[in-house]
Amino acid sequence: MIFPENFVWGAATASYQIEGAVKEDGRGQSIWDTFSHAPGNVADGDTGDVACDHYHRYRDDVALMRELGLAAYRFSVAWPRIQPDGRGPANPRGLAFYDRLVDELLEAGISPYLTLYHWDLPQALEDRGGWANRDTAHRFAEYAAVVHDRLGDRVQNWATLNEPWVAAFLGYGNGVHAPGRKDPASAMRSAHHLLLGHGLAAARLREAGAASIMLVVNSSPVLTPAQVNDHEAVPDEADAAAVDRVHALLTRQFLDPALHGRYPEEVLAAAGRNGGTGHILDGDLEAINAPIDLIGINYYNPCVVEAGPGLPADAAWPGSEDIRFAPADAPVTAMGWPIVPDGLSRLLVRLSKDYPDVGLMVTENGAAFDDVVEDGRVHDADRVSFLRGHLREVGRAIEAGADLRGYLVWSLLDNFEWAEGYRRRFGIVHVDYATQARVLKDSALWYRDVIAANRL
Ligand code: FCB
């Protein structure tokens, strides 16, 4: 497989997962500081206080990226570094960090892909209702403009939100993520306000001259158990309906409003039964439908479902109480996530048909395994085979006509994996959290060769 000539190869991270330095240079508190410091929320009581200490080591980390030949680096800006209380004038020392990072990247010939929101909401905004409060959408658009104002002369590629489904439904639905609220109605409202924030921010960015604007979603192909290993398997009517509904709740809930200016019926029905639709105001869908250029896709595993008595209703899935989430017949990663590489090509081909007006980019794909350092090396053969398998499917999707612009591996570094803390390692670079030493895993060396050859 040879990739297209200008195919963008890179890696991704997120602010709270790598930066540390949570009290430095005027940074305000985020919902993840609060959440991780409350006992019982994160495995082993881990927090992002130090993380990979990237805030102090970004120069070395950019040097590693250069060594790997990355063309792109996707990072996120911590909103509470820029506006410690989520509103008002910018904190110049917070902006200065990203300014230095961007310059360092450009100096290394690496294009910055900047994500404005990767889940670290200023705690002050959560105290006023967080994403369940409509005002947060307006605050977000203002923040986007502030960041663009400082970095827009050098950053071309902008993403508004990372994975609004996760932010809304794990943050406000089942409470597994910050802010840890457990209320399906708040989750539905939050999803809408995240979308509104996206649309308002996209319009501000466009107005300010941003070259490329993207919305990043966690999408998965939704399959019945039989379809996991058999593309030809035809589900019965009840299973097919379950598949369609879960696809609507997971993916179309975000991409239909953003790209077609309307909600799927399944989403309106779920909202209707969970607090109502009164938070969707006239004009919102037009605002959400602001023009964008790319969909960013974070793919890890398929979503496997069938009709039938569900698990005890999971507040992360309002609207799917009569649907069963089933295991896939496939090997799993250390997260317990099934490894189904062709799920990626199935997904990309479908999204390129459903949303033909925008390009696609894989903004995250990767796996956690229990890596060990031996004689200064990490022989992560499982990760190499995971990445190879998925890149093959990226190639297939391109051959099938998907307008796929690039691929970013999750993650550059081992990091703070949210509720799992540091015990799950997703990096192609190993981090020793005691010494902050970095070691290129075999997967990093392999990826470097793929990038250099632009082929598998
Ligand atoms: C995604 C997140 C990312 C990382 C990976 C494993 O949902 O966007 O921050 O945690 O999962």
Description:
The protein has 456 residues and is of the alpha/beta class. It has helices spanning 15-18, 31-37, 54-68, 79-82, 92-107, 123-126, 135-151, 164-169, 184-207, 225-229, 237-260, 265-272, 284-288, 342-354, 381-399, 442-453, and strands at residues 8-12, 72-76, 111-117, 157-162, 212-218, 222-223, 294-298, 303-307, 323-325, 359-364, 404-410, 429-431, 438-440. The radius of gyration is 21 Å and the shape is globular. The N and C termini lie close together (5 Å). The mean pLDDT is 98. Beta-D-fucopyranose (FCB) binds at residues 14, 17, 162-163, 166, 218, 298, 364, 410, 417-418, 426.
Strand order of the largest sheet: 1-2-3-4-5-7-10-11
Which structural class do you get from the secondary structure elements? alpha/beta
Distance between the termini: 5 Å
Provide a count of the helices: 16
Q: What is the strand and helix layout of this fold?
A:
Layout: E1 8-12, H1 15-18, H2 31-37, H3 54-68, E2 72-76, H4 79-82, H5 92-107, E3 111-117, H6 123-126, H7 135-151, E4 157-162, H8 164-169, H9 184-207, E5 212-218, E6 222-223, H10 225-229, H11 237-260, H12 265-272, H13 284-288, E7 294-298, E8 303-307, E9 323-325, H14 342-354, E10 359-364, H15 381-399, E11 404-410, E12 429-431, E13 438-440, H16 442-453
Parallel strand pairs: 1-2, 1-11, 2-3, 3-4, 4-5, 5-7, 6-8, 7-10, 10-11
Antiparallel strand pairs: 8-9, 12-13
Helix pairs in contact: 3-5, 7-9, 9-11, 14-15, 15-16
